[in-house]
Design goal:
mainly alpha
């Protein structure tokens, strides 16, 4: 056999032989590879989150979109605005009754 054919045959055998047949892997090696894969998959991305172009309008009627990790602080007494509104309406009704007279 010519040396060139022998080299070509060796290259073909080396290229087609699977990696697992060339290096024996133990269970510890496989576990380490799997743990590395899982740890890399769980790490948060250091890439900035996607941002919509300025011409795209994103409706946020409820205020769910939070920018720069700022969190919405709910009011300490959530019904205060409603109670104030009802008080103004009640006061207006009383003033109207006093100025215009009571019902006939």
């Amino acid at each position: 056999m010519h040396p060139l054919r022998l080299v070509a045959f060796a290259a073909i055998v080396a290229a087609t032989t699977p990696v697992c047949a060339q290096a024996q892997m133990t269970a510890e090696d496989l576990n380490r590879m799997e743990l590395n894969r899982l740890l890399q998959a769980q790490q948060p991305s250091r890439i900035a989150p996607p941002v919509a172009p300025p011409w795209v309008f994103i409706a946020d009627p409820v205020g769910l979109i939070v920018a720069d990790r700022a969190r919405y602080q709910p009011p300490s007494f959530p019904g205060l605005g409603t109670l104030v509104g009802l008080g103004i309406v009640g006061a207006g009704s009383v003033i109207n009754t006093l100025v215009m007279g009571g019902p006939l």
